[in-house]
UniProtKB/TrEMBL annotation:
Domain of life: Eukaryota
Listed PANTHER family: F-BOX DOMAIN CONTAINING PROTEIN, EXPRESSED (PTHR38926:SF13)
Entry protein name: F-box domain-containing protein
Species name: Aquilegia coerulea (Rocky mountain columbine)
Domain called F-box: residue spans: 19-61
InterPro entries: F-box-like_dom_sf, F-box_dom, LRR_dom_sf
């Protein structure tokens, strides 16, 4: 009997159940030879047994971490495809797989329905990172989803359409009482911010943050347009604040439609302390130590400092 006939006869002995019952180490060895995209589109869909082998290779990182970073190349008009993939991943989770940290790919066009579907199935999240372009998610859609995430401590959001920002901040404050870290990540730095691609930290939005998220310890603004009044409000009114991280931002001046930039190679460590006479002073460390008696005078100095430009790494403002 030829080698081909022996092989064919051997393969023929296996039913579908036989393939399903292969040892996990054998399946792992086979699947490791496949491209991740091919693995997800083929083997992952076969049966529950195969999905349990594929999941740690693709998405499940252990310790409650589910990372969908491999879900790439899904276009803005492929919402149905994305929903099928989410159902395949989330509905296939074993009962013992309690997800506490969930990371979407940075560039994924997520709709209200996608977000709500994930929220219904992942109610125990403590850490959530949404895609950076979140402008397909409406304020109403965000409200429906965030109600399921009462235990969040760490949240990364992208930019929303302009009218929805205040509503989104309010909903986070109402539902996420344990939130300690909030990052707002703008995708593009455009001078025209009407399209909603840039988060604007002005007096209004900073008051919303200070009013509804006063328990947050760290704010991180990336790619945002900053107003000095906005930063001053957060520094003075957020009682639990420990630090502000600023990266790739611009700050607005009094000249309309002109925005200065925050400089690279600049690292500020700003601390707030109470003097013996119960007055508060701010101490900033850059190239030399300087002491200010108000946050406004400190920010004015930072605003006008000749070394301020777009940072290659975050500028951290620590106030404790």
């Amino acid at each position: 009997m030829s080698m081909w006939k022996k092989t064919k006869k051997s393969i023929g002995k296996y039913s579908v159940d036989g393939w399903k019952d292969l040892y996990e180490d054998i399946l792992t060895m086979i699947f490791n030879r496949l491209d991740p995209k091919c693995l997800f589109e083929t083997a992952y869909s076969v049966c529950q047994s195969w999905r349990s082998v594929c999941r740690p290779m693709l998405f499940w990182k252990g310790n409650g971490i589910l990372d969908l970073a491999r879900l790439t190349n899904i276009g803005i008009d492929e919402g149905d495809k994305l929903m099928k993939l989410l159902k395949l991943i989330l509905d296939g989770l074993q009962p013992q797989c309690v997800v506490t940290e969930f990371f979407f790919p940075k560039r994924l066009h997520l709709s209200d329905n996608h977000l709500y579907y994930a929220a219904q199935r992942l109610a125990n999240l403590q850490i959530l990172s949404l895609p950076h372009p979140t402008n397909m998610i409406t304020g109403v859609g965000f409200s429906r989803a965030i109600q399921h995430w009462k235990e969040l401590r760490y949240l990364v959001i992208g930019t929303f359409k302009f009218p929805d920002y205040a509503h989104v901040i309010q909903e986070i404050g109402v539902n996420c009482k344990n939130l300690e870290f909030l990052k707002i990540h703008s995708m593009e730095m455009k001078l025209d911010v009407k399209d909603g691609n840039v988060f604007v930290l002005d007096e209004r939005t900073s008051l919303e943050l200070a009013t509804h998220l006063c328990q947050v310890k760290i704010f991180w603004f990336h790619g945002s347009l900053l107003y000095i009044q906005g930063l001053e409000t957060i520094l003075n009114k957020c009682s639990s604040l420990e630090g502000i991280i600023i990266s790739s931002c611009r700050h607005a001046t009094r000249i309309p439609n002109f925005h200065r930039t925050l400089k690279n190679n600049t690292w500020y460590n700003i601390k707030k302390r109470t003097r013996n006479d119960n007055t508060i002073e701010y101490c900033t460390h850059s190239t030399e130590q300087e002491v200010y008696n108000s946050s406004l005078s400190m920010l004015h100095d930072l605003w006008n400092h000749e070394r301020m430009e777009v940072p290659r790494w975050p500028v951290e403002l620590f106030i404790r």
